[in-house]
Amino acid sequence: MSTARVLVLYYSRYGATAELARHICRGIESIDGAEAVLRSTPPVTADDQHPVRVVPDSGAPWATHDDLRQCDGLLLGSPTRFGNMAAALKHFLDGSASIWAEGALAGKPAGVFTGSSSMHGGQESTLLTMMIPLLHHGMVIAGVPYTEPALSETRSGGGPYGASQFTPHGNKPAFTDHEKRIAHAHGARIAQLAVDLKDRRGSRARTAR
User: Fold this and answer.
1) How far is CA 103 from the centre of its chain?
2) Torsions phi, psi for 163 (to 5 deg)
3) What angle do CA 111, 112, 118 make, to 5 degrees?
4) Which of 141, 146, 182, 199 could be joined to 158 by an S-S link, Cβ 3.0–4.6 Å?
5) pTM
């Protein structure tokens, strides 16, 4: 059985989304046959003139489109920006037309995650709108089912559309146990789907020979 690579791709401004991505990676790594690949995107602004560095000063490496091509599953993360994903992540996805034309992501499992600095800061709309480009790529979207008890118990982040986290304005990220458990469960679910679907594709390929 070959290893299923699950790409955890995110943009993070102050570190909360990056930390949520790491909790998701722990869920991925709990599944036999799955490997978490952590990548981020550089910031962009309307007047950004400097060239993007190949390697960031710290944190996960910058993502490339080959990371998308080579993954067997994807978890996409961004903080909320007016109820939508951050421009940096949108910019990266807008450049993925060649991957769409190849159908490189079609049939692979995907999920989304986010965070906000206010309890009703647009988490659900961000998660839902982040799914749209993944649907255009033909990916199979999976959230967090209510069989995960933390989903019914959380009083902070986390919902059926995807893992999320709440950090009040001016505070350092401090994850609740429920947020961690939901992030772990979401990573594990996408990883298990990636392993199962990759094994099935491999079985079909062997049968066709």
Assistant:
1) 19
2) -65, 145
3) 150
4) 182
5) 0.92
CB contact burial 87-98 (16+ within 10 A = b; e otherwise): bbbbebbeebee
DSSP string, 152-201: HH-SSS-BTTB-EEE--TTPPP---HHHHHHHHHHHHHHHHHHHHHHHHH
Domain with residues 4-44+54-208, CATH architecture? 3-Layer(aba) Sandwich (3.40)
Per the CB < 8 A criterion, the answer to whether 8 and 21 are in contact is yes
Length, in residues, of the chain? 209
Q: Could you tell me the residue ranges of all domains in the chain?
A: 4-44+54-208
Q: Strand locations in the chain, DSSP E?
A: 4-10, 34-40, 73-79, 109-116, 140-141, 164-166
